[in-house]
Write a structure and sequence with these properties.
The protein is 58% helix and 11% strand. The chain is built from 22 helices and ten strands. GO terms for molecular function: DNA-binding transcription factor activity; sequence-specific DNA binding.
Length: 525
């Protein structure tokens, strides 16, 4: 594993001499760049990453010590070596207390520098390998949970997750799996899936592609490939890598790739989408690689259907839910090539809806709801869309029954109120609250008015005025400051709303209260 290094010195001759005369590649340093002061180094660090920085301590604009302080706080994984003259040794010692890796005195001994860089490089590589190993284990566990154990009662929130980079999810199947199962002995057949995974992992490593591979269900190899910076996830590069995998695999395989994801919270949707796409290419030959965006556009808007059904469920209106299911089944029947594919789409939608409801309402027990459509159906008998539609409707009505228990709308409104109380000081809009809770703005407005007796704007204004009254009575802040604090950008509008609700302007209200307190004190004395 190679590293990237940045040399920082205000004398270009020294920088260029170090770059050109030392055989950096033999030390495991793949790339060496230069900067001629600390400020220039920070500019490079803003859009590039370096593993090791070799810097002089005495430079104009920003010296090496100031640079070190910045890097220690902003780039803690970046190692630093300081070069110091004798007169600046105290500075070097101060830098070491900051956590700098080591220092060298001028004039620099080349052999000593090479030995030090090699030692630090080995330390960096060891740290990266440990970090990558931990990240790989974490991602494998997240992948299992998000795909097969969702919703998570212990789900890690995204802001605490150690991975926020780009990824693609690939689903691979061995073509003719049943034939191989019948042909090989049970002992020989056990190695089929492992042989394929071995080829996938070996090829990914050869390309330097970070990855996690695991088996989902029988004959289903899931591979998550991820990378923060490079173009390794581009279609052309992924085709090249998977072309080698297909060529080296001892068995014919088909692979579907998701579009590029940015958050592991999207992983379940990519998985469901991939299952549909894989179903579309079965029987069309081995060695097939299809990007999900291209193939999916030719079939069904999975997310759109799922969202429509989820919205109908949350509204709690059975007649509207029935109409929505009728439309969805009709659309699936029109766009899918076979009846069995249409049934599988309905099943996948049910699973996705159940999972999304459980994630949103963890206090509920959607897992206990038995879904008739998920049972094995002999499609030669269950061979009309009307029957499938009725089964689908029956299942979703059961989910709706679980949703309505214990006044679910009240629970949702309380959740929305908590969000409003947390964000009322900002430019809060009804559309934002609706989007945060996965419902349409129109449905949000109707539900909020029904459950609270107030419109969204009436509720927010009431809350803001209540908070402003508290501040008027308990602080000496100016009225315009209070207006801004509670979320009003326009002072005149704040005064207008305040007077409408309280009966006085904010200034009048404060004076009246002060006068009242003064009279009470006089009476007491």
């Amino acid at each position: 594993m190679s590293i990237r290094m940045l040399i920082v010195d205000d004398e270009p001759v020294i920088c260029q001499g170090l770059v050109q005369t030392i055989p950096w590649e033999s030390l495991g340093v793949q790339e060496v760049d230069m900067a001629f002061n600390g400020k220039q180094a920070l500019e490079k660090l803003a859009d590039q990453s370096f593993d090791l920085i070799l810097t002089d301590i005495s430079m104009p604009e920003m010296d090496g010590l100031a640079l070190a302080e910045h890097i220690v706080h902003e780039k803690p994984d970046t190692k630093m070596i300081i070069i110091s003259g004798f007169d600046h040794f105290d500075y070097a010692r101060q830098a070491l207390r900051l956590g700098i890796e080591d220092y060298l005195l001028k004039p620099v001994d080349v052999d000593e520098l090479m030995a030090l860089v090699k030692r630090v490089r080995n330390k960096i590589v060891a740290h990266k390998e440990r970090k990558n190993s931990l990240l790989q284990d974490w991602m494998a566990e997240q992948l299992r949970h998000r795909l097969f154990h969702s919703p998570l009662s212990e789900r890690i929130k995204e802001k605490h997750a150690p991975w926020t980079g780009r990824y693609r999810l690939l689903i691979s199947e061995v073509s003719g799996y049943a034939y191989l199962q019948n042909t090989f002995s049970s002992e020989a057949f056990e190695g089929v899936q492992e042989d394929v995974r071995h080829v996938v992992e070996k090829t990914c490593r050869a390309y330097g592609m970070k990855h996690v591979s695991l088996f989902g269900h029988e004959n289903e190899l899931l591979t998550l490939v991820y990378n923060e910076h490079s173009d390794m996830l581009d279609d052309s590069k992924l085709r090249e890598i998977w072309g080698d995998i297909i060529e080296q695999s001892p068995y014919p395989i088909q692979t579907i790739s998701s579009s590029v994801g940015q958050s592991l919270s999207e992983c379940y949707d990519h998985y469901q989408e991939g299952l549909i796409l894989l179903d579309n290419v079965r029987g069309k030959g081995s060695g097939l690689f299809i990007e999900s965006q291209q193939c999916f556009k030719e079939t069904v808007d999975w997310k759109g259907l799922s969202h429509r059904l989820l919205e109908s469920l949350l509204k709690g209106d059975e007649s509207k839910l029935e109409a929505c299911i009728h439309q969805v089944v009709a659309e699936l029947l029109e766009k899918e090539k076979t009846f069995s594919q249409m049934v599988e789409r309905c099943r996948s939608l049910e699973v996705a809806l159940k999972q999304k409801l459980q994630e949103r309402f963890p206090a509920k027990s959607f897992d206990r709801v038995a879904l008739r459509l998920q049972e094995e159906l002999e499609l030669r008998k269950w061979n009309t869309s009307n029957v499938i539609e009725q089964l689908f409707l029956c299942d979703l009505i059961h989910l709706l029954g679980e949703l309505k228990e214990d006044g679910q709308n009240n629970w949702m409104i309380e959740k929305m109120k908590r969000y409003i109380h947390k964000h009322y000081q900002h430019d809060l809009r009804a559309a934002e609250v609706a989007e945060r809770h996965f419902i349409t703005p129109n449905y949000f407005s109707m539900l909020f008015k029904k459950e609270t007796g107030q419109s969204f704007s009436e509720y927010v204004n009431g809350l803001r005025i209540q908070k402003s009254v508290e501040l008027l009575l308990n602080t000496s802040n100016k009225v315009f400051e209070i207006a801004e604090y509670v979320g009003y950008k326009e002072y005149k509008y704040f005064v207008q709303v305040f007077k409408k609700q309280v009966g006085f302007t904010p200034t009048q209200y404060r004076r009246m209260n002060a006068a009242q307190e003064s009279r009470e004190k006089q009476i007491e004395s």
